[in-house]
Amino acid sequence: MPRPIEALIHTAALSHNLGRARELAGGARVWAVVKANAYGHGIERCFEAQRLVADGFACIDLNEAERVRALGWRGPVLLLEGVFEPRDLELCSRLHLWHAIHCEEQLEWLAAHKVLWPQRVFLKLNSGMNRLGFKPLAFRAAWQRLASLPQVEDVVLMTHFSDADALRLGQDGIAAQLAAFEAATADLPGERSLANSAATLRHAQRPLGEGMSVAADWVRPGVMGYGGVPDYPEHDAAYWGLQPAMSLRAKVLSVQEVQPGESVGYGSAFVAERPMRVGNVACGYADGYPRHAPTGTPVLVDGQRSRTLGRVSMDMLAVDLTELPHAGFGSEVTLWGRSGVTGALLDIDEVARSAGTIGYELMCALAPRVPVRVEP
Ligand SMILES: *Cc1c(COP(=O)(O)O)cnc(C)c1O
Fold first, then answer.
1. pLDDT band at 210 (very low <50, low <70, confident <90, very high)
2. Is 135 a catalytic residue?
3. Which of 43, 85, 149, 315 sits between 20 and 30 A of 121, alpha carbons compared?
4. 11-230 has which fold?
5. Is the pLDDT of residue 91 over 80?
6. Residue with the nearest Cα to atom 8 of ligand 1?
7. Which CATH number fits domain 246-375: 2.40.37.10, 2.60.40.10, 3.40.630.30, 1.10.357.140?
8. Span 123-151, mean pLDDT?
């Protein structure tokens, strides 16, 4: 018997959520961002649902790009960070990958490379995040250089926002970077790509230069495609019309009656103040559940809200059954996503917030030992 825990991937939600990105983005094309193994959901599991809506697949490493090609996708595939060493360019040629150019090294590698056919590159502007990309002056020089290379067919202008999900230093989150992008690119031809999930949800309709919006030519929705909300708790999934693409469910393995003054779990981190019924659930931090989730982190027991108690162990965690007299051995516990019993929802972002992190981290951390089932 496998342990009573499983993750479900809801494929209809994947198509629905990317469809939301498409609606918000106006006429822009949509990259389905499938880095980190499709944010923990599994590239192969998500592919058919995502291809119904996506215009291309955006990856971080070559292995992911190879997997998308192996699934039979012949459309655009983008390496968001470009190549990591010169010989990666051979695979870019062979697999027809589009790739970011964010630094001089990548530019020189391409200039020295014998391509099979001219390549499409995404030239990245560092508009203020100071992670990847050329500063504005160097950006313009890099554009000139790329435009003169026989290896290059087309240059798309790209940047990435640091604060699209919130205010920045008390002001509009993207205004400064937007102005930097506009100033650096105003007279350059070519397509543009700026928006991640947060910018697609919050800013897609804002103007960018002549007749264009922040959605520009390509949006790059990642987490929203999986039902995660970049600006939680200001907004939640229901507000943005997003559906969870992953549910993590386990069962109650044992029930303990606990008297006042008795404790639960490692470190006696929870001490009962009244008689309680405690369910121990087949899910722990070795399954990807966050160990930092404190007492009170929400769960659904047979679809009804309850809370965790005490420390999360490697293979188990404890939940409060005191107010749920019908719950007991074998009851379903939804750690995040949709209950299989009632269909009730528990936002992954709410669980993440309780544990001091973000929904992105929880979905990406789903452990390999958890069996995964795909359903519509
Ligand atoms: C990860 C990533 C995205 C998607 O980000 P989300 O916040 O998940 O939407 C978009 N663009 C780049 C360059 C990225 O690295």
1. confident
2. no
3. 43
4. TIM Barrel (3.20.20)
5. yes
6. 222
7. 2.40.37.10
8. 97
Mean pLDDT across 88-95: 96
35 CA → ligand 1 middle, Å: 9
Ligand 1 centre and the CA of 282: distance in Å? 33
Tell me which residue of 234, 245, 263 sits closest to 353, measured CA to CA: 234
Q: Model confidence at 323, in pLDDT bands (50, 70, 90)?
A: very high
The confidence band for 1, taking pLDDT boundaries of 50, 70 and 90, is confident
- Mean pLDDT throughout 152-177? 94
348 Cα: distance to centroid of ligand 1 (angstroms): 18
35 is catalytic: yes
pLDDT at 116 over 90: no
Query: Among 17, 18, 29, 33, which residue has the most ligand 1 atoms within 8 Å of its CB, making it the best to mutate?
Result: 33
Angle, to 10 degrees, between the axis of helix 62-70 and the axis of helix 43-51?
Answer: 60
- Reply yes or no on whether the pLDDT at 209 is more than 80: no
**What is residue 168's predicted lDDT score, i.e. its pLDDT?**
85
Q: Whose CA is nearest to atom 6 of ligand 1?
A: 222
Q: Do domains 11-230 and 246-375 have the same CATH topology?
A: no
Average of per-residue pLDDT across 55-60 = 98
Please, which contacts does 1-5 make with residues 24 or more away whose CB atoms are closer than 8 Å? Answer: 2/371, 3/250, 3/282, 3/315, 4/250, 4/251, 4/253, 4/282, 4/330, 5/248, 5/249, 5/250, 5/251, 5/282, 5/283, 5/287, 5/370, 5/371
Q: Tell me the domain boundaries of the chain.
A: 11-230, 246-375
With CA atoms as reference, report the closest residue to 138 among 171, 180, 173: 180
Q: Quote the pLDDT of residue 2.
A: 83
